[in-house]
Design a protein that fits this description.
With 514 residues, the protein is an alpha+beta fold. Among the domains are: 76 residues, Pdz3 Domain (Roll), CATH 2.30.42.10; 170 residues, 2-enoyl-CoA Hydratase, Chain A, domain 1, CATH 3.90.226; 84 residues, PGBD-like superfamily/PGBD (Muramoyl-pentapeptide Carboxypeptidase, domain 1), CATH 1.10.101. Helices cover 34% and strands 19% of the residues. It is built from 14 helices and 19 strands. A hairpin with a 4-residue loop joins strand 10 and strand 11. Helix 8 packs parallel to helix 9 and helix 10 crosses helix 12. It is flat and about 110 Å long. The termini are far apart. Keywords: Hydrolase, Membrane, Protease, Serine protease, Transmembrane, Transmembrane helix. Belongs to the peptidase S41A family. One of its GO terms (cellular component) is outer membrane-bounded periplasmic space. It comes from Planococcus halotolerans. This is Peptidase S41.
């Protein structure tokens, strides 16, 4: 079929001049199309060569970075000449990990897609695991603090415990993310941590049953004399609203003074810490400062909002880190609130988590933060105004319930059991790690009091009961909380009520049961 064309618009080339050689006569449109085809063909061949050629070039449209030439060379050498097949993605992930590790910053980390997903779980409503915040320090995975009521806390895990192995696998040199991948797992499964604690010469093994860890972050109760004890266990997206609810509930119960407790709180979201700080600091006063590289500090001021208008003290310890220290610095330096307890952990940097295109994440330190007075507390911590130590028995290690401690046994576990029973006011004789007659009698008395089978042997349920009783004693006779309560009562002008008689306590228990 002949192509039909309108007569108008047909352009004719002018007659060409004769020359000695042959010539080709082309219409203008055809000539232009030929040039376009040649350009496209040349571009296609170039892209093919760049993509599949033996000598690969830097990615098209990317500026050449000479500092990466060594990296490209190493990548190609391994890819082409390593004696086994190599996963290209693992090589790239390893290269990024190496760059981050070279920073020497325990708070900076690269997470592949799976690791990034678990990282996001940590700020969601719940996750499954043991419930402990960990951090890499000097090549060791260190417990910052266990989460309140978590399997880790119930198993006796403590701040500054060093985890040297997980299920028998040595994890020295692992990044925080790599360690978390091993420690976390499905609810109902077990994980065994090998732990070094303090000056102990031998490590201990702690087997923990993983569970769902709800991210409930605020716990409140009245502790007598119109004083409320409000514990904040981490700073998540819902913490501020949880705290507002707790304060309202405590006011309804007659609260006249408040003890805020961030002991063993490893931190969390910066905004949450600022929102809470704002409750205690007058409008216009400084809460904290952030200083990025080469820039002047950015100052955050308290805004106009409802303020807590009753006396407050703040409890801190070595497990109070990051956002907890932001709150402590703001309350102390800008509101004159007394800090009670032990020196805080000492984390004065801010991290930013950057999502990458494939779902992985690059989290690294982007700034340092300063207290309102301009103090950088990194690796120094914040000292309390009133120092109060935990009792010695509060830091005793976990006892493996699978062991059988009986007359004639000599071990560090026996020494620990002796100290526990002694703290519970049982006569154990000399605390020397030797299970002798007095220790047997003490165990029998304890078993009788707990309505357990009286055998004089510590194992299984007897060990669990012993640790539960000690934990209850720590909570009941908390010297830091008692000191903080006394101070805030003095500030509020509250007279201490007379202690309950045994009869009054029994009546109160009966009324509570009804």
């Amino acid at each position: 079929m002949d192509e039909r064309r309108p007569e108008e618009g047909n352009e004719q080339l002018p007659p060409a001049e004769e020359s000695r050689g042959h010539y080709i006569r082309l219409k203008t449109f055809s000539f232009i199309m030929l040039v376009v085809v040649l350009i496209l063909a040349t571009a296609g061949l170039t892209v093919f060569a760049l993509t599949f050629g033996d000598e690969k070039a830097v990615e098209v449209n990317s500026p050449e970075r000479r500092e990466f030439q060594k990296l490209y060379t190493a990548y190609d050498e391994i890819q082409n000449n390593y004696f086994e097949d190599v996963d290209r993605e693992e090589l790239i992930n390893g290269a990024i990990n190496g760059m981050v590790d070279s920073l020497g910053d325990p708070y900076s980390d690269y997470m592949n897609e799976e690791e990034a997903s678990q990282f996001l779980e940590g700020i969601s409503s719940s996750f499954e695991g043991i419930g402990a915040e960990v951090q890499e320090r000097n090549g060791y995975i260190t417990i910052v603090s266990p989460i309140k009521n978590s399997p880790a806390e119930k198993a006796g895990i403590q701040p500054n415990d060093q985890v040297i192995a997980v299920d028998g696998e040595n994890i020295q040199g692992f990044s925080t993310t790599e360690a978390v991948m091993l420690i976390r797992g499905e609810k109902g499964t077990e994980v065994t941590l090998t732990i070094m604690r303090g000056d102990m010469q031998d490590p201990i093994e702690v087997t923990i049953v993983r569970d769902e860890i709800p991210i409930e972050t605020v716990y409140s109760e009245m502790i007598g004399d119109n004083v409320a004890h409000i514990q904040i266990t981490s700073f998540s997206q819902e913490t501020f609203s949880e705290l507002e609810t707790a304060i309202a509930d405590m006011k309804e119960e007659g609260m006249e003074a408040m003890v805020i407790d961030v002991r063993q709180n490893p931190g969390g979201l910066l905004q949450s810490a600022l929102d809470i700080s704002n409750l205690f600091i007058e409008e216009g006063a400084e809460m904290f400062e952030v200083q990025a590289k080469g820039q002047e500090p950015e100052i955050y001021l308290a805004s106009d909002a409802d303020k807590v208008d009753i006396p407050v003290t703040l409890l801190i310890d070595g497990g109070s880190a990051s956002a907890s220290e932001i709150l402590a610095g703001a309350m102390s330096e800008s509101a004159g609130i007394q800090l009670v307890g032990e020196k805080t952990f000492g984390k004065g940097t801010v991290q930013t988590a950057n999502d990458l295109a494939d779902g992985s994440n690059l989290k690294f330190t982007t700034a340092k933060w300063l207290t309102p007075d301009g103090n950088w507390i990194h690796e120094k911590g914040i000292e309390p105004d009133v120092a109060v130590e935990y009792p010695e028995y509060a830091s005793l290690p976990f006892i493996d319930a699978s062991l059988e401690l009986k007359d004639g046994t000599i071990s560090e576990q026996v020494r620990t059991a002796e100290k526990m029973l002694e703290a519970l006011e049982y006569e154990v004789g000399e605390v020397d790690g030797v299970f002798e007659e007095e220790m047997t009698q003490a165990v029998e008395a304890f078993q009788e009091d707990q309505e357990l089978e009286v055998t004089g042997i510590l194992t299984g349920d007897s060990i669990y009961a012993l640790m539960d009783e000690l934990r209850a004693k720590i909570e009941e006779e908390d010297p830091m909380l008692l000191e903080a309560k006394k101070l805030v009562m003095e500030e509020a002008g509250i007279e201490a009520s007379a202690p309950e008689t045994d009869e009054e306590a029994e009546e109160a228990e009966e009324e509570s049961a009804e």
